[in-house]
Amino acid sequence: MADRTAPNCHLRLEWVYGYRGHQCRNNLYYTAAKEIVYFVAGVGVVYNTREHKQKFYLGHNDDIISLALHPERVLVATGQVGKEPYICVWDSYTVQTVSILKDTHTHGIACLAFDLDGQCLVSVGLDSKNTICVWDWRRGKVLAAAPGHADRIFDISWDLYQPSKLVSCGVKHIKFWSLCGNALTPKRGIFGKTGDLQTILCLACARDEVTYSGALNGDIYVWKSINLIRTVQGAHGSGIFSMNACEEGFATGGRDGCVRLWDLNFKPITVIDLRETDQGYKGLSVRSVCWRGDHILVGTQDSEIFEVVVHDRTKPFLIMQGHCEGELWALAVHPTKPLAMTGSDDRSVRIWSLIDHALIARCNMEEPIRCAAVSTDGIHLALGMKDGSFTVLRVRDMTEVVHIKDRKEAIHELKYSPDGAHLAVGSNDNSVDIYSVVQRYKKVGECIGSTSFITHMDWSTDSKYLQTNDGNGKRLFYRMPSGKEVTNREELKLVQWSSWTCVLGPEVNGIWPKYSEINDINSVDANFNNQVLVTADDYGLVKLLRYPCVRKGAKFKKYLGHSAHITNARWSHDYQWVITIGGADHSVFQWKFVSDRKSKEALHIAPQETLGDSNSEESDSDQSDVPEMDSEIEQETQLTYRRQVYKEDLPQLKEQSKEKHRAMAMKKRERTPGSGVKLHFIHGYRGFDCRSNLFYTQTGEIVYHVAAVGVVYNRHQNTQRFYMGHDDDILCLAIHPLKDFVATGQVGRDSSIHIWDTEMLKPMSVLKGFHQLGVCALDFSADGKRLASVGLDDNHTIVLWDWRKGEKLSAIRGSKDKIFVIKMNPYCSDKLITAGVKHMKFWHKAGGGLIGRKGNMGKTETMMCAVYGWTEEMVFSGTCTGDICIWRDMFLVKTVKAHDGPVFSMHALEKGFVTGGKDGIVALWDDTFERCLKTYAIKRAVLAPGSKGLLLEDNPSIRAISLGHGYILVGTKNGEILEVDKSGPITLLVQGHMEGEVWGLATHPHLPLCATVSDDKTLRIWDLSPSHCMLAVRKLKKGGRCCCFSPEGKALAVGLNDGSFLIVNADTLEDLVSFHHRKDIISDIRFSPGAGKYLAVASGDSFVDIYNVMSSKRVGVCKGSLNYITHLDWDKRGKLLQVNTGAKEQLFFEAPRGKKQTIPATEVEKIDWSTWTCVLGTSCEGIWPVVSEVTEVTTACLSNNRNVLATGDDLGYVKLFRYPVKGKYAKFKRYVAHSTHVTNVRWTYDDGLLVTVGGGDTCLMIWTHEAEGHREARHCDSEESDIESEDDGGYDSDVTRENEINYTIKALSTNVRPMTGVKPHLQLKEPSVDERQGVIRGSRPPVSRALPQPEKLQTNNVGKKKRPIEDLVLDLVFGYRGNDCRNNVHYLNEGTDIIYHTASVGIVLNLTTACQSFYIEHSDDILCLTINQHPKFPNVVATGQVILVICQPRRPPSTCGMP
Hints:
The protein is mostly beta strands. It has nine helices and 110 strands. The protein has a six-stranded antiparallel beta sheet with strand order 59-60-61-62-63-64, with no helix packed on it. A five-stranded antiparallel beta sheet has the order 46-47-48-49-53. Strand 106 and strand 107 (about 1410-1415) form a beta hairpin. It is globular and about 115 Å long.
């Protein structure tokens, strides 16, 4: 079988030809080390001109379009385009990421700027609002954000002389911003009469509130504060694209090809016209300038970089060149020299030296070039044009040999034959023409088999055959030079190909992902010597695969750098390099090929290499080389934890059913029951799909989780205390290093993490808003300040939190496959590891992101657990095959066999490790995993006498291990918690059912016992007295769904899932009798009361069978229900059966024959029922919730004193109602502890306890019943009911009115406030089309306090003299807002002033002088006001206003501080 692993060799980016000049500005700078930093495609480049070397920053995954240099000139910030663009701050010396800023912008990041001390970074987005964000970039946190402008913003800069001030400019505007608190407030620049309103392209700030800006017409506009004070006319001939401030003054560059230098007062110093210099040309346009000392860097529109020395300014050095704007498709390599030829839509053909990394020749053609080929002797260069012609040049002097046009559509591929005699030219006209080179390129043949455009061609080594690929995905063969198609495949079997650049054919099947378009790989080139293949695709990836790669989805190594589609890739003639060219980024990348021999020598490679050289994650092959996954792990990876309805959906669902129940709310409803229940004990531990979730606390108690409850268990007293803050399954638990706090993560649509105190059981912090579906792994940092979490979403998002503040520090997509464990480095809280399915990654924090590198291990294994060792670099991980992997940094040092089957849990000790596996063995190891010191097998034989139950089987799979207090604590997959004494004996502390739903529950008629039966195929008897243990267990052949004790308690009937049922001895659980009459599940089973003469057995095939217990015969069948049976109850006499079905029918049958009876509702209530577990009927209609379409009430049970009805439902709520529950939507008390559906509830014989079982959460919960008057108020005494009724006390009329006031201004609706009459400026003006539709571009809503936007520039009528407008000053305000506000008048300054508000004004009134002073920064009604009482902040006031809905949908209403 062909080798399907990735090749051992790799590529290293060596050189990038080009510079991004088009559509970008101000992106070229000198660093502190006098290197030049710029970007091209998706790569940040640091170029050392003295040594002619480049370093690359490869942290982006799409085109970079903006760049800023930190004031210390070592760090660089770059911003990219994309759906979820991000900003990277990186070190220009090490080219490593320092910080990642993400999750705020969309579309792209247009501009970036650091402030004076480099602490803050401002960015401008490309979204429709051109959002401006200010970042604390080291922490990756947004300090402030605001919509920038309705049109494009081209430049932004901090005012370096005034803190917290910024200036932005763009299409027809300039804005001056002040940053105050977390608000950015703009003021528009006033152009006045000094200059025309026009687009401002660049700016620079100077002292004394002066700002210089470059305009589209070539003028410089000078601003003082927000006013235009003068213009420098004709500074440039046309648009000024770039302005750079330095110690000496300012440099500007424009479209006219000139660079001008100005002194600090903007007086001209000198001008450098690049068009007039030796290297200049007509149309040269400057996009970026940087002036440092006597050197000036200039970047041009056409991708060149010039360096100008000021005293010799007529001779600029051209230090970098690239193709101009336009797609780049043509690439050819010289057959004998290290040269590459490229041709582009910019109509130039260029020859690059791969050794000198320089452009050595350039020639401009008449037409855009689409492909190129060099003849075998290296003399001729053929170029295929977009217009269907091709031209042949001499390589030596670029002179034309011949120009031929035989086709109308573009030539897409051409190739010389290996013997040099012929040239094959493939066009978009679906044909290949063959020309004879020696006959001055006379046409000698034509291949016309294709039905689509020709994409690739290859000659055979003997030049007798040609193979082609076309756009339809067809591969055809032709005989040369005639062009006759070869259809006989036998003839082709022996053909050897001189090159392989085709994308189709058996040899390259593996280059295609399993499900992909046939045309998304643009180019392939095979290196026969090293048996590798390079491919270039539409996603900007260069991939390296083995050649031949025969099976689809082969493994590869992939390299990022190009941003969008890569159009071509070729090996150099000696296979030293790979050259790739980007279509849209029109850049040329040169990659050094490092073969396996060399890569072994270079294990000390520079860190940046490992970034780009990543073993693929997406190789989606069938993984036939990966060992079979363990069944347990397989099962676990398939769990999704998705719910049809989440508890958090309830308010919304209730809202939807509001109308329906308005009427109900008016009626008087039954009040809640007087007594309540309190959770007392839970039998269960979640081990079947969780790991490492069991710890000792500071005080020696044991903390773990099950269902939606965090449990703190005291092993000496055998008691439990509960943390009840969650409302759905908890999936993971981590303990704080001080062992006093615990973090737990749950399932949920927006799932939350709770950090709570194990002593007080109070939440310290709740973290929400980042994980969808659930949280599957957690870990605290060694100092306990940070918490790392992993979500269950498709990308398994990793989030790093400052948990006390509830603040997200960093987030990143973790992996497509499931992550089982996350661990933070105990020595460095910025580092962490994740391990999971085919995944081991080493992460470090960088600002708001994390940078991850895959563990280097050859074949990928699934990791189940991981811990850090005794130094920062050492990591130990347990695999699914039973090995322990030992890592140093990210390199695998060695593996040690530890267990048979997966290693599920490991724990690091001071001097060693302890591990537990599926084999049921606990192993103690020394600190290097050299020796196993001791093993403990978990067996029934060594169970200590004090155990609280029975081991179900020997060697259960171990899921959690923890050490402390001289013991090893072990959690098993079967739901047992054990304590292993180091000398050997094992004590069982807690246990519950295993994986599988638990439905069957019965309480004993006169003892504190209950029986449960579950889909885990066990029947268990539990002691409900304080000893809380499992007394007996029996394994069954099938799972069961119901059970029932006989009236005297001697026998126990159990209904199984295959339609059979058993009657067993209630003490020994041995069979007494069994029957199998039905095919479907037995859903309920009941002995008749009294002597227990009859047994009623209800099944899923909608029958109830009645058996005579004594004669063991079936005596009757109850027929006539439309659906499966859900509940059964006998009356006291044992003569009548009540039945509920899945179709919500309530039916009655007579025993023993099973005759159907119709009984009116009024009579049903009079019947004395022995038990009531049904959920239908008038006496319990109030138990169905408002949202009963979505959730079912699954179970009910009436207490023996007939006062309280307990129910369980699909959302996991246990509810208590006062019986009888007549009338809809009765009030109740509800309790959350079960996570999903509660399947059964039962009262004990004396009503002292309520016992409940949960379906998916497998637990048995015991609640104590507390009579009236005996209960203190607690938080689990639930919201009392689903709907608030009027009898809960109505409102006073004033309060009602205020409650209904709505301050939302419906933006985009014209009558915002009730106004009468027409304002003067709106009279008699014909509304525009936009206004008629109610839409205003850049829409500010119709009521807005902002300046009206200028319609068009109005020219003054010269003749009329206008009086200058004088400013209005607010003098006096009458009024105070009391109609809907409270507590909004306060004394200030020890009673000399009072402060209050009205409209949008804050007013301070001096009581002695009766003068008012005003705070007028609000833009709408103020609704509330408070003053700071702290002596440190005298006279500080906060006011909050109404906000216009459409301005800033993502930001809350603003509050302002008023001094």
